[in-house]
Amino acid sequence: MFLLTNFEKGHVNNVTYVRYAETARVYFTRNFALHIDPSHKTEWMNLVSNRGLGIILRSIKVDYKFPMQYPDKVTVYHKLVHDPSSSQSTQFAFHLQVMILSEAKQRPAARCHEDLVTYDYKLGKKAAIPPFLMKQLAETWKLQEQAKKHWQQRILDIEARVRKLETESWDRADAVEDTGSAKK
């Protein structure tokens, strides 16, 4: 009754945010299968099933930013937290950072940290990240880092242009501030 009552009032239950992250993670994985690495399509699709080798959620931490109201639509973004070849990663696990954006409010509704483990369902225990997955995680990390450098440079360029504009207008010796006074 609790879920129904909250739904009727328009409140999106906290468990729903975890489902948003999970659903997006499945699509994230399927995207690799269908568009990025189709030569390993079967292996990618198996990662989100309970057949053979899969990816399971060891833990998730959710930081709620504001209470979303139904109806709302969300956009969910995933990114790797660490370089998969770094000492912060292990041969069994990797971490994803998740941002859940509210379309109605145009801002983050929640941020999540997912700790994922590769798991062998046949053996019933964790397993090493397979080479096809490790290769794509490494490539994704490389692309993330390239994008981060590109956008950091763009920010620096914008800040330099703003500073130039300020220097040419406000920071002149003869600059006069117009406070919007009605008296002229």
Structure description:
The protein has 184 residues and is of the alpha+beta class. It has a single domain, classed as Thiol Ester Dehydrase, Chain A (Roll), CATH 3.10.129.10. It is 42% helix and 24% strand. Strands 1, 2, 3, 4 and 5 form a 5-stranded antiparallel β-sheet that branches. Helix 2 (14-36) runs antiparallel to helix 3 (41-47). It is elongated. The N and C termini lie far apart (66 Å). 16% of the residues are buried.
Query: Strand pairing plus helix content: what structural class?
Result: alpha+beta
Number of helices, where a helix is a run of at least 4 consecutive DSSP H or I residues: 4
Helical content band: 40-55%
What is the 3D shape?
Answer: elongated
Tell me the name of the CATH class: Alpha Beta
Report the uncertain regions: 1-7
Using only C-alpha atoms, the radius of gyration works out to 23 Å
Q: Can you tell me the CATH superfamily?
A: Hotdog Thioesterase
CATH architecture: Roll
* Overall pLDDT score: 89
How many angstroms separate the termini?
66 Å
* Count of extended strands: 5
Strand % is 15-25%
Largest sheet: 5 strands, antiparallel
**Count of all domains:** 1
CATH topology: Thiol Ester Dehydrase, Chain A
**SSE series:** HHHEEEEEH
